[in-house]
Amino acid sequence: MINVFFDMDGTLIDSANAISYAVNEIRQDLNLAPLSREIIMQTINTPNIDWAKELYNIENFHHSSFKEGYEKYFVKHYEQSVVLFEGVKELLEFLKSKNCFLAIATNAPQSSLSNILKKHQIIPYFDKILGV
């Protein structure tokens, strides 16, 4: 039997809209103009970059609540705005037809993970789902 493990964000689903909405909502709260989705995604996908400085004009930001604050905004938009990447369902159907064991191992919150998979009708394909 072949085992196939997937991450969720950026592999099965496109969460760029949720990320962009969350960043821009925080920017609005800070009285900053919105940024384009492209700029936001380029920033977060660039290694060794200070997100707070680049996205929110905050220098030397080391406050522990920043991550929790961002996650609050992100979760708000996550379930509403994520979409499956093109071809995901067809790939899952093919792998299942070959009797593959399919699993998701992701750092996405377990609380929203099942809802997203159900919403996109792909939960039945997976034998194991592991989130945080």
Question: What this model shows, in words?
Answer:
It is built from six helices and five strands; from the N terminus they run ββααααβαβαβ. With 132 residues, the protein is an alpha/beta fold. It folds into two domains: 3-13 and 84-130, HAD superfamily/HAD-like (Rossmann fold), CATH 3.40.50; 15-81. The strands form two sheets. The chain has a three-stranded parallel beta sheet, with helices on one face. Strand 4 (101-105), helix 6 (110-119) and strand 5 (128-130) form a beta-alpha-beta unit. Helix 1 (16-29) crosses helix 4. The protein is elongated, with a radius of gyration of 17 Å. The mean pLDDT is 87.
- Taken together, the total number of domains comes to 2
Radius of gyration: 17 Å
Order of helices and strands: EEHHHHEHEHE
| Average of the residue pLDDT scores | 87
